[in-house]
């Protein structure tokens, strides 16, 4: 049976992520047309106007290489978008880009015994605030899309990927993710404290970045990545 047999569509919610967090027994994919307090990693806000697809679901099962869940979900989003004809990239660890701009963000939050996976996809938005380097499927193609079809196609990919992750672990996805990795072989900054500078060489078997720095190879476990000389 599919993990995603229950679907709850809300007109508006503060955040699908918080909605699920507050309802421990709810085993549904929660979607909203609009969020008033959508949020991303590091407490950033997630622009959640009508036109986008905002969803969260909870996972309670044991997965291999669980820390790679954001990457594997990002890959599911890439493959869904590619089926619609888009060229995609993954900005480690949880962003999907098309044409140099962010089209999707993934947020995985670990609670006691569950992981809450949140996904925001810019589907039909016609504009974004100027400070955001964001795009939507509409802006990138000039076409409108059914959010329901986008959702169903995405859940199908995620379902398959979770089964593979459970059985084989991250190694089954590493090549597919590396092929889509933004900034590969380029000079990047990881915004850790202090920042780490280096050339992005690879992604490890655990899903970490491998950087060639002045001090030799370094594994990066977390942090925001940007191209050297570019902020944001
Ligand atoms: C990021 O880019 O930092 C992650 C953004 C995640 C946004 C999604 S939209 C659905 C779910 N509800 C939220 O409040 N956030 C996630």
Characterization of the model:
The protein has five helices and twelve strands. It is of the alpha+beta class. It folds into two domains: 7-179, Bira Bifunctional Protein, Domain 2 (BirA Bifunctional Protein, domain 2, 2-Layer Sandwich); 187-227, SH3 type barrels. The chain has a seven-stranded mixed beta sheet. Helix 2 crosses helix 4 (147-168). Biotin is lined by residues 15-17, 35, 38-41, 44, 46, 54-56, 94-95, 105-107, 118-120.
Annotation keywords:
5 helices, 24% helix, 232 residues, binds biotin, globular, five-stranded antiparallel beta sheet, alpha+beta, BirA Bifunctional Protein, domain 2, single chain, seven-stranded mixed beta sheet, SH3 type barrels
Q: What is the terminal separation in angstroms? A: 42 Å
Assign the CATH class of the largest domain: Alpha Beta
So, the CATH homologous superfamily of the largest domain? Bira Bifunctional Protein, Domain 2
Strand order of the largest sheet: 1-2-3-7-6-5-4
H/E topology pattern: EHEEHEEEEHHHEEEEE
Indicate the CATH topology of the largest domain.
Answer: BirA Bifunctional Protein, domain 2
The total tally of domains equals 2
> Could you tell me the radius of gyration in angstroms?
17 Å
What gross morphology would you assign?
globular
**Which spans of ≥5 residues are poorly predicted at pLDDT below 50?**
none
The main β sheet shows up as: 7 strands, mixed
Question: What is the averaged pLDDT score?
Answer: 96
**How many strand units?**
12
Which structural class do the helices and strands define? alpha+beta
Q: How much β-strand is present in the residues? A: 25-35%
| Bound ligands | biotin
Q: Helix content range of the residues, please?
A: 10-25%
Number of helices: 5
Q: What's the architecture of the largest domain, going by CATH?
A: 2-Layer Sandwich
């Amino acid at each position: 049976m599919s993990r995603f047999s229950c679907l709850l569509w809300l007109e508006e919610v503060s955040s699908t992520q918080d909605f699920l967090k507050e309802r421990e027994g709810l085993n549904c994919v929660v979607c909203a047309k609009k969020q008033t307090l959508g949020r991303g990693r590091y407490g950033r806000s997630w622009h959640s106007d009508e036109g986008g697809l905002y969803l969260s679901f909870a996972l309670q099962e044991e997965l291999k290489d669980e820390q790679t869940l954001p990457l594997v979900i990002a890959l599911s989003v890439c493959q869904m978008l590619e089926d619609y004809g888009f060229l995609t990239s993954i900005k480690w660890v949880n962003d999907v880009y098309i044409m140099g701009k962010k089209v999707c963000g993934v947020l995985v939050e670990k609670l006691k015994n569950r992981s809450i996976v949140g996904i925001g996809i810019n589907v039909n938005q016609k504009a974004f605030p100027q400070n955001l380097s964001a795009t939507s499927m509409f802006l990138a193609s000039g076409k409108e899309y059914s959010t329901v079809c986008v959702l169903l196609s995405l859940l199908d990919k995620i379902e398959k990927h979770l089964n593979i992750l459970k059985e084989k672990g991250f190694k089954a996805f590493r090549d597919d993710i590396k092929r889509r990795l933004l900034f590969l072989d380029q000079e990047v900054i990881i915004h850790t404290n202090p920042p780490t500078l280096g050339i992005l060489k690879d992604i490890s078997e655990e899903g970490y970045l491998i950087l060639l720095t002045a001090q030799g190879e370094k594994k990066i476990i977390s942090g925001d990545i940007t191209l050297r000389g570019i902020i944001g």
